Amino acid sequence: MNSEPEHSQGEGTAPSGVGEEGSASQKQGPTRNKKKKNRGRAEVATASQENDHEPAGESSDGATSKKMAATVDIQRALELLSLGKGKVRTAKTLEQAAVRWRPMVEKDCSEVHKLLNAYLNKFLLLPLFTLDDFKHWFLPRDGIVASYVVEKAGKITDFVSFYTLPSTVVNHPVHKTLKAAYAFYNVSTATPWIELMQDALISAKAQGFDVFNALDLMDNKEFLEHLKFGIGDGNLQYYLYNWRCPEMGPEQVGLVLQ
Question: Domain tally for the chain?
Fold first, then answer.
């Protein structure tokens, strides 16, 4: 994702609520690879890029992930949550979501950096973020990336981030841009995944996003179906040059690739 918010993902029109496959090319980012024989892990060290804020990500030819999307404007997804037959509760408002979390600030980076790396360490394919890398990719910037933390008793327990990647809408008399949010890296240790990502949808809607996309990797399947995400029409293939890497399922991949 480029630093300029005007960067468009592609020239095609994306229907509301359906995640489209990105057409923008991915810059190459890994600088080294480490493999552990007993687990077949592949770790990619990320390199901060001066003028680019797009997630660095090259991965294995054995890993595949699918893009999912939630239409942020669907009232049913944000207003009602079924608790069983005859039981319905209203979802949280933006103000209620704000009670749970707050935007991440620079003084949080050291703690959240450790939290994220500890979470990613359970996957077989993962990036290695230095503290400087973490600040580069995750410190909030308007129109580029949003990051939030949940803090309880002075300790940060959960982390959510999503980035902006608008698409150009062609041949439409009114709408020229589709503002899309993409789930980046998220960590849930105290707050349930569904509640954490529901707050992300509410915040994205409040910021004017039209659609919220997520890949079905890491622990994302914990919330995709419950929050009414629709399955996209493409798969992402991961490649690691000529590095040997075992075949992996999406739940074993901790590297976000577009």
Answer: 1
CATH number of the domain within which 50 lies: 3.40.630.170
Label residue 30 by pLDDT band (50, 70, 90). Answer: very low
**Structure tokens of 235?**
């798969």
Segment among 26-35, 167-176, 179-188, 193-202 with least mean pLDDT: 26-35
Q: Is residue 14 part of a domain?
A: no
Going by their DSSP bridges, the two strands 180-183 and 211-215 should be labelled as: parallel
Nearest Cα residue to 134 out of 115, 156, 155, 154: 115
Residue 32 CB neighbours (<10 A) = 9
The answer to whether residue 7 is domain-embedded is: no
Query: What's the gap between Cα 92 and its chain centre?
Result: 21
Tokens of 197: 């990502």
pTM over 0.85? The answer is no
Domain residues for the domain of 72 are 33-252
Report whether 202 contacts 48 (CB < 8 A).
no
